[in-house]
TrEMBL record:
This is Citrate synthase. GO terms for biological process: carbohydrate metabolic process; citrate metabolic process; tricarboxylic acid cycle. Pfam families: Citrate_synt (PF00285). Belongs to the citrate synthase family. InterPro entries: Citrate_synth-like_lrg_a-sub (IPR016142), Citrate_synth-like_sm_a-sub (IPR016143), Citrate_synthase (IPR002020), Citrate_synthase_AS (IPR019810), Citrate_synthase_euk (IPR010109), Citrate_synthase_sf (IPR036969).
Length: 606
């Protein structure tokens, strides 16, 4: 049976429930939603299909209830029901009530009691009624959250303050996470207990020798990379993020604060939520003097990434996680000081990064932050670039470089170091040291230097034939063509594509952009001809330099610092979830060549 492209399994159970739901759909849908009678095993329909009910409490794996539109009418139906309907309906409901009552929070318990009463009284079959019920329970929920907050802040006395707090809870990222975490903890527990032994693939000798390429071995919630399609942040592609994430009043590109909210919660934030987060970050951005002193202890000729990692290490002195750990915090609370550290770190890294830029290239003439600006615009301002287009570029730049699933060198390093319960500053500083390698984040520096060397040798109006020769010269001297190739991607990086679109819109006549466009035609066939390169297409770093260069940020050695500022959003978001989910110490098994040879000999003789 198909409803809007959705295949319903167990059609007999479905019919049984449809009959029941025809009589009393409201009771059944509420039961499924609030008593937890829903299954994660149910086939999820296309997420864009808004007619399907969200599965709210994937705790009690018996049935999945969906609400589907048929013509003008709502239909309620149940799928993946292994037991006879009667069993689930009559026997399991009270059990589920009890189960949920014991396992849920106070607010949820209220739901259960009320819906249990509703169930007994045969709720009327009316969508209007359902709407008012939803309004009622949302108010109960808000009231309950408010009450617990008031409990913590006993000075509050009047209802006006209460109302303000109610709205501030929705604006508060930490409160949002607080609500999400138990759900995700249960989800992971269930995954482990029900599917812990399911195999994900075979490990080959090639994988062990070849940098674990293609080996699935990490849990990373904030983004997922597809070899052909590129990155999705919490399920959203870059063009989708550009469409749905709030932009600055005068701009079109996503605000990085919105992306951060999305990475952390999996939800697209409202404009107001983004503004609140922007203010929160601005209020956390003070950097102690000893951080600047630590940077100043290095010669100003030190690579900017060395200065940046040193600055982040100096920020560590204020780690909330370290303090909390030393005073014996319970592991169930680890995520909270991690959250504080991560938000502080994200807020402070642009200040440190801008200080390094001004120290190295502008005679140490620092520019104070402007708290009225958003994160990206303020960073651009502190660097010394107040052109509105540069601010837009910075918002886009920070958004697209933030996260690239968990296996890339910087993200993996951050996660690995964090798994030892090193605090977010220690973890992120380690990640930066990985980002500073030329095969990873330093490639953006290498690209612009390489492009400039092309121009120096052959001029800006180089022909495609000359360019091809230059590419071969680079390859023949044992170097890589920077900005091309990738460990996972097998098509043009969508981050390259969106930067190209930005250039076509704002700087189509820039000579270096035109050279980058020419390279897009010349390099892939050459790399393909080389025969060994798995992905001849450009990656994110092939484009960023010429955009920055166009707006006056010409110092290529600094570019990886910008990448690092952006990556703090992704790595820190995942670190918070690492601690919230209680992820384990990372400790894969290693072997020697002797071991591999002996193993292969045994395998071939057996
Ligand atoms: N130029 C020349 N040779 C290349 C390139 C390239 N752009 N890309 C791959 N190869 C070579 C690679 O060095 C290897 O050679 P060998 O067997 O002699 O060691 C061979 O092709 C096979 O490599 P792949 O399996 O295609 O790539 P791998 O997954 O090992 O490495 C990169 C991925 C990204 C390290 C590689 O493509 C590269 O070095 N690219 C240039 C540097 C770069 O742009 N890095 C930035 C990546 C994105 N980021 O921001 O981190
Ligand atoms: C990244 O953004 O981290 C790079 O594209 C490298 C990778 O994903 O391996």
């Amino acid at each position: 049976m198909t409803f809007q492209g959705l295949e319903l399994e167990h059609s007999s159970c479905f019919k049984a429930y449809r009959d029941l739901s025809a009589r009393d759909p409201l009771t059944i849908s509420f039961k499924a939603k609030y008593f937890g009678l829903v299954s994660q095993n149910a086939k999820r329909p296309n997420s864009k299909d808004r007619s399907v009910f969200r599965i709210l409490y994937p705790r009690f794996s018996l049935v999945c209830l969906l609400r589907v539109v048929e013509g003008q009418n709502w239909k309620y139906c149940v799928i993946n029901l292994p037991q006879p309907a009667l069993f689930t309906n009559v026997i399991c409901s009270p059990f589920a009530v009890l189960y949920n009552f014991v396992h849920h929070t106070q607010t949820q318990q209220l739901y259960f009691i009320l819906f249990f009463l509703l169930d007994l009284h045969q709720a009327p079959d009316s969508l209007v009624f359902e709407f008012w019920i939803m309004v009622f329970f949302r108010s109960v929920s808000a009231f309950s959250r408010l009450r617990s907050r008031v409990g913590q802040q006993s000075s509050l006395s009047n209802s006006v303050r209460w109302l303000q707090m109610q709205s501030s809870t929705d604006m508060d990222l930490k409160s949002q996470l607080q609500e999400l975490i138990p759900e995700q903890q249960d989800r992971l527990k269930k995954l482990k207990s029900e599917h812990g032994k399911v195999q994900l693939g075979n490990i080959t000798v090639d994988m062990v020798i070849g940098g674990m390429r293609g080996m699935t071995g990490l849990l990373w919630e904030t983004s997922l990379l597809d070899a052909d399609e590129g990155i999705r942040f919490r399920g959203l592609t870059i063009p989708e993020c550009q469409k749905v994430l709030p932009a600055a009043p005068s701009g079109a590109e996503p605000l990085p604060e919105g992306l951060l909210w999305l990475l952390l919660t999996g939800k697209v934030p409202s404009k107001e939520q983004v503004e609140a987060l922007s203010k929160d970050l601005a209020s956390r951005a003070a950097v102690p003097d000893y951080v600047y002193n630590a940077i100043d202890a290095l010669p100003s000729t030190a690579h900017p990434m060395t200065q940046f990692a040193s600055g982040v290490m100096a920020l560590q002195v204020q780690s909330e996680f370290q303090k909390a750990y030393e005073s014996g915090i319970h592991k169930s609370k680890f995520w909270e000081p991690t959250y504080e550290d991560c938000l502080n770190l994200i807020a402070r890294v642009p200040v440190v990064a801008a200080y390094i830029y001004r120290r190295m290239y502008k005679n140490g003439d620092s520019i104070p932050s402007d708290k009225s600006l958003d994160y990206g615009a303020n960073f651009s301002h502190m660097l010394g670039f107040d052109d509105e287009k540069m601010k837009e570029l910075m918002r886009l730049y920070i958004t697209i470089h933030s996260d690239h699933e968990g296996g890339n060198v910087s993200a993996h390093t951050g996660h690995l170091v964090g798994s030892a319960l090193s605090d977010p500053y220690l973890s992120f500083a380690a990640a930066l040291n990985g980002l500073a390698g030329p095969l990873h984040g330093l490639a953006n520096q290498e690209v612009l230097l390489w492009i400039k060397s092309v121009v120096e040798e052959c001029g800006e109006n180089i022909s495609k034939e000359q360019l091809k020769e230059y590419v071969w010269k680079t390859l023949n001297s044992g170097k890589v063509v920077p900005g091309y190739g990738h460990g996972v991607l097998r098509k043009t990086d969508p981050r390259y594509v969106c930067q190209r679109e930005f250039a076509l819109k704002h700087l189509p006549d820039d000579p270096l952009f035109q050279l980058v466009s020419k390279l897009y035609e010349v390099v892939p066939p050459v790399l393909t001809e080389l025969g060994k390169v798995k992905n001849p297409w450009p990656n994110v770093d092939a484009h960023s330099g010429v955009l920055l260069n166009h707006y006056g940020l010409t110092e290529a050695r600094y570019y990886t610092v910008l990448f690092g500022v952006s990556r703090s959003l992704g790595i820190c978001s995942q670190l918070i979830w690492d601690r919230a989910l209680g992820l384990a110490l990372e400790r894969p098994k290693s072997v020697t060549m002797d071991w591999l040879e002996a193993h292969c000999k045994k395998a071939s003789s057996g």
